[in-house]
Hints:
By secondary structure, the protein is of the alpha/beta class. The chain has a six-stranded mixed β-sheet with strand order 5-4-3-6-7-8, sandwiched between helices. A two-stranded antiparallel sheet has the order 1-2. β3, α4 and β4 form a beta-alpha-beta unit. The chain is elongated, with a radius of gyration of 24 Å.
Amino acid sequence: MVRKIAQMAGRLQRLGAAHKRTKVTASTGVIRGITLGGDIPLLLPSELAGLRSRHKLQRLLSLGTVLDRRALQYDVTSTVPETRGPIIVAIDSSGSMGNSEDSPGAWSKAVMLTLLQTAQEQRRAWHVIAFSGREDWQPLQAAIRYEQTILPGEATLESLLPLLLHRADGGTCFEAPLTRALEVLETAPSIRRADLIFITDGEGHVPDALVVRLNAAHEQHGLMTYAIGIGAQAKLRTLRPFAQEIYHLSSNPNQDSAEIAPVLALVS
């Protein structure tokens, strides 16, 4: 199963990278005006015409202007977003996610592994919270089944195996992982200014007070929340009040894995 997850993650990584390249190429910046410089891709057509002149002297004069950075060029402000901070992944490990190679659980772990790879490449800290359900008399912490922090440069196969082999079981409790994510965001120095990725195949209750806290974290800590619903039964209406982006996928990565490319590019 670990090999299957790794194969799916590799495919997702390529999809996310391709989507990001397309997005950046389509909009590299906003033209604010004209300035002096020597950046050939930004040169005005009149300057490029000098470089292409049939007359050798004109070409040399134009080239000298470019080398001296005195040529007319567009003044462009980049619109490519800056790299953000760490990533918190809350992943549903309830029984309905399943433990087979073709289950929603394997698909969600592939998404999680892809996010980790992106975080490690950019030297961003990464925190995962695997959750299921709890009995009414149990504390919220009982729904947290697995938790791990991986700092930049510390990801190894040994460190990831317990996470990839973690088995899904039990019910679903959204309140526990979201509350824990806020605690990590507010108390762990390595997880400041994080993006939260919430992956689930079901629906859960989120108290109004917790929604208020999450929205406050958006303002105070720059928290961005992305919800990913997997399977036809995934109902994400309880996440809509605080999730900035919501994606709804089938449980078949071969059918719609391209749909996840935007969120993988957003956090990269």
